[in-house]
Amino acid sequence: MRPAQDTALPPSLAANPRLGAWLRVRPGRVVEGGGEGGGVEGGVVEVWPGKVELGQGVLTALAQIAAEELDVGLGQVRMVPAVTGLSPDEGYTAGSMSIQYSGAALRLVCAEARGRYLAAAAARLGVTEDKLTVGDGQFLAPDGRATSYWELADDGLLDRPATGGYPPKPTSAYRLVGTSVPRLDLPDKLAGRPRYAHDLAPDGLCYGRVVRPPARGATLTDLDQAAALALPGVLAVVRDGSFLGVVAEREEVALRAADRLREGAVWGRRPTLPDAGDLPAFLVSAAAETAVLAEAGQPPAPGRVAAGHEATYHRPYLAHASMGPSTATALASDSDQNGARLRVWSHTQGVYQLRAELARALDLSPDDITVTHVAGAGCYGHNGADDAALDAALLALAVPGRPVQVVWSRADELGWAPFGAAAVVRLAAETDPAGNVLSWRHEIWGNGHSTRPGSAPGTSPVALLAAGHRARGADIEAAAEPPMARGGGAGRNSVPGYAFPAYQVVNHRLLEMPLRTSALRSLGAFVNVFAAESFLDELAAAAGRDPVEYRLSCLADPRARAVVEAAARRSGWDSWAPHKPGEPDESAGHGIGFARYKNTAAYCAVVAEVTAVTEVRVRRLTIAVDAGLIINPDGAANQVEGGAIQAVSWTLKEQVRFDRYGVTSDTWETYPILRFSEVPAVDVELMAGRGNPALGIGETAQGPTAAAIGNAVYDALGVRVRTLPFTEENVVAALPG
Amino acid sequence: MEDERGGAPVTVLVNGQRREVRTEPDTALLYVLRNHLGLKGTRFGCGLGLCGACLVLVDGQAAYSCDLPLWAVRDKAVTTVEGLGTPGRPHPVTRALIAGQAAQCGYCLSGVIIAAAALLGRDADPPEEQVRAALDGNLCRCGAHNRIVRAVLAAAAELRAEPRDRPRPRAMP
After folding, report:
1. Concatenated DSSP letters of A663-720
2. Comparing C-alpha atoms, which of A291, A314, A311 is closest to residue A528?
3. How is domain B92-165 classified at the CATH fold level?
4. How far does chain B reach from its first CA to its final CA, in angstroms?
5. What residues of chain B lie within 8 A of the CB of A204, using their CB?
6. Which residues in chain A touch residue B41, judged by CB atoms under 8 angstroms apart?
7. A378 touches chain B (CB under 8 A)
8. How many CB pairs under 8 A join A and B?
9. For residues A723 and A731, what is the distance between their CA atoms, to the nearest angstrom?
10. Helix (H) / strand (E) containing A638
């Protein structure tokens, strides 16, 4: 096969065009033996994706894509964790973009690599390329002679830029993509073998702990460190402004020393946080930058409007609440030894972005720092991973030559990691006599959704927690709003996916950020879809129309219609009865929510069945998703179900609590999440791909699940709860006087 | 008996082996397992016995190792997730979790495996509600709950068919 003409490369391939940056064929060992026994065995293709495993199974899916295009076995692919300086820079692993974009890049790389090796195989065997069959890494000639990737292994073959000129396989030829191969990383993780960043145990490892301020904005005014230093095994106490930490030979000693430092520290405190009792009032009154994110159509002629509607919704701050607190291990070199001056192992979502931010924080060149990805617990967005890396680096610099591991406490993870932004969303609509929408307005108040390293200009304060606590440190800048063309942040999914004749979307981005906010799975889509889909239900109810019929009446996109219809059909929407025989649920209800994530990724409809008196319980979720080409159906279903269950937890239970000084919901008792006995049955239908390209799936269920639950609560109680979470307190507050 | 690293020798019985470590008697068992003995399968989650990531078996009973001082397990048999099976033959719950792909990040699962093994040691045929109740002390953030419950039920069925894998609880003194 000869290269066709160049085609536009996917962005991460255009940015990292060298084929050898993505793939290396590692020769196997030569096996001695006469007759059939000789040859080369055990070679592997190393795949170097820029994306990282976050527990979502992406490396397994990318391995499937690579093995498919190369015609090697899945067992012959080895996924290499991302490391700065070697892996391609693919930005953050975020936004449900890995399969959609990185997968597309890898597919082209592997198709081209296969083409190059095919040509080499043809030359080696003295036949034309079209005579060769390829499978399990072997190139087989018609006369039975064969060679393989491993025998031909030559980095020179891939030391060239991708042309994009080798067409990937048609989906009809797939044998591995589209099948539910088991996750590659699970056997080790489930056997308790060391696979997490928390498990790193390099020689000479010592343990660091950071003592955070007792309040936001508190300053360390006095410190007695004698008691901490008196503990045998304490190596160093590090103080830099209000950043305070300790390094010890043993973890238990680091913990005790941190306790002693806490007792010996005197802090100046002042109230900096808004009144948690009326968070919505703060959100709509704080200084803000107002922008029209989108608008279309003309206001309806006054004579056509039969009714005007308006409703206001609210979500609180939410914690990522990873099961494994953030951690990092760092090693500062103690001599002019070869290699980087600072090495960091982190469960960051972006090794290059973290490296650049560490370089800014520590006044080093990025070339002096190596960041290697090691899996953490699921993060669901920007948690404390990057912050922990600076913590570890600051402590490691105090003990050069010794690797230092920092693990955050649960209190720090729930109290100091970035939060998903609280928001107020006000919806307004004008309808015709049949209840159809003539105009729609969606208005948002709240902080932005990304303070990730690299998301603010390079002159802004370093976006890592400890940087602001150090001497001359500055607070992290209030989160910005990424352009809607990239999916937006607060504005994500605020543009109606329905065929409304006119709409306007307005965002009020807060310019102060009392609690640090950053990306939490689905960003603004969670509250925007909750609000818009709740409001749509309110309009349907006002018109006396069925929620499914009402949605279908204004959904033009056939794929959107198909998921709504599928979820309704599968849940038995039309025949649903709240009072099941032998199950006298007096307050059962069902509701539907729909969205296409980011308006560009996977389509998702959710039907929720709840029981609600004052406590809301979700009994069942029926979900239909159209994500186009599915690489691994079981993995995709797992992601959708997991996202939906997490959204049930957010919707029913979760809320960051705080007083004027700091976050008070810093244990699992004060920040409860859904437990096994509270988890609903979940039924996921993945729609057939029908030749459509892969669409991101990891965050698609968040908003529709919340909306479906809210609509089901209304169906059950006749009460519209517009404030999340649906705790007894908020349900009771919504009951008519 | 102190050196510059501190601590004093203490003997623990872990996964059937007596091991000597050098620490203080009030050190939480978790840090002894993970750092002194290199058994990284037991995980730190909260340090307060509220999430279940650190569960181990102590004389056959599930216990939170993150706030369990070492002196409390003197003369007791500690079993970690590594001690529940062998690399060639993982524990039936582990096998069932892998077979059911009942995980996303996997961080909580060591504790889940311990809790499930303890449950199946008490009750060979628990109904689903009882499995869920038994796992209510284990938090999972990825939403793998339903798959985990199905896997535990599958493991129970397998254990009933092949009782030799079944963990036997020891009598408490």
Report:
1. B---STTTS----GGGPPEEEEEEPP-TTPPP---TTTTHHHHHHHHHHHHHHHHS--
2. A314
3. DNA polymerase; domain 1 (1.10.150)
4. 32
5. none
6. 191-193
7. yes
8. 191
9. 8
10. helix A633-652
Cα(A694)–Cα(A626) distance, rounded to whole angstroms? 9
Q: What pLDDT does A410 receive?
A: 98
Domains of chain A, each with CATH number or no CATH: 11-183 (3.30.365.10), 197-269+326-407 (3.30.365.10), 286-318+420-734 (3.30.365.10)
| Residue closest to B84 by CA, chosen among B112, B65, B107 | B112
Judge whether B131 and B58 are in contact, CB under 8 Å: no
Query: What SS3 state is found at A496?
Result: coil
What pLDDT is recorded for position A488? 96
Question: Residue B78: which of B137, B36, B123 has the closest Cα?
Answer: B36
Same fold: B8-83 with B92-165: no
Helix (DSSP H) and strand (DSSP E) numbers for chain B: 5, 5
Which fold does the domain B8-83 belong to in CATH? Answer: Ubiquitin-like (UB roll) (3.10.20)
A100 to chain B, any CB pair closer than 8 A? The answer is no
Domain boundaries, chain B: 8-83, 92-165
Kindly identify which residue of chain B lies nearest to residue A410, measuring between CA atoms. B46
| pLDDT number for residue B165 | 55
A33 touches chain B (CB under 8 A): no
For chain A, what is the total number of helices (H) and then of strands (E)? 18, 28
Q: What are phi and psi of A527, to 5 degrees?
A: -80, -35
CA distance A344 to A467: 17
- Whether A222 and A271 have beta carbons less than 8 Å apart is answered as no
Say which residues have a Cβ less than 8 Å from residue A637's Cβ, sequence separation at least 6: A684, A686
Through-space distance between the first and last CA atoms of chain A, rounded to whole angstroms = 75
* Crossing angle of the two packed helices B145-161 and B92-99, in degrees rounded to 10: 130
The model carries a pTM of: 0.95
Q: What is the ipTM of this complex?
A: 0.95
Number of Cα atoms under 13 Å in the Cβ half of residue B83: 22
Give the span between the Cα atoms of A313 and A101, in whole angstroms.
Answer: 34
| Interface probe, candidates A190, A621, A700, chain B, greatest B C-beta count within 10 A | A190
Residue owning tokens 């003194």: B173
Q: Answer whether A191 sits within 8 Å of B106, measured CB to CB.
A: no
Interatomic CA distance for residues A492 and A699, integer angstroms: 12
Per-position DSSP letters for B84-139, written without gaps between them: SS-SSS--HHHHHHHHTT--SS-TTHHHHHHHHHHHHHH-SS--HHHHHHHTTTS-
Residues of chain B below pLDDT 50: 1-2, 169-173
Q: Is A725 within 8 Å of chain B by CB?
A: no
pLDDT averaged over chain B? Answer: 92
Q: Return the pLDDT at B1.
A: 39
User: In chain A, whose CA is at the least distance from the CA of B3?
Assistant: A232
The predicted-structure confidence for A291-335, as pLDDT tens digits, reads as follows 999 999 999 998 999 999 999 999 999 999 999 999 999 999 976
* Inter-chain residue contact A323 with B141, CB threshold 8 Å: yes
Residue A23 distance to chain B (closest CA, Å): 26
Kindly report, residue by residue over A253-277, the tens digit of the pLDDT: 999 999 999 999 999 999 999 999 9
Tell me whether residues A233 and B7 touch, CB distance under 8 A. Answer: yes
pLDDT at A582: 62
A667/B contact by beta carbon, under 8 A: yes
What pLDDT is recorded for position A529?
Answer: 98
Minimal C-alpha gap between A235 and chain B (Å): 10
Q: Using CA atoms, how far apart are residues A21 and A49, in angstroms rounded to an integer?
A: 9
A606 contacts A567 by C-beta, under 8 angstroms:
yes
pLDDT less than 50: residues of chain A: 1-6, 34-35, 37
| Contact status of A298 with chain B (Cβ, < 8 Å) | no
CB contacts of B4 in chain A (<8 Å) are 232-233
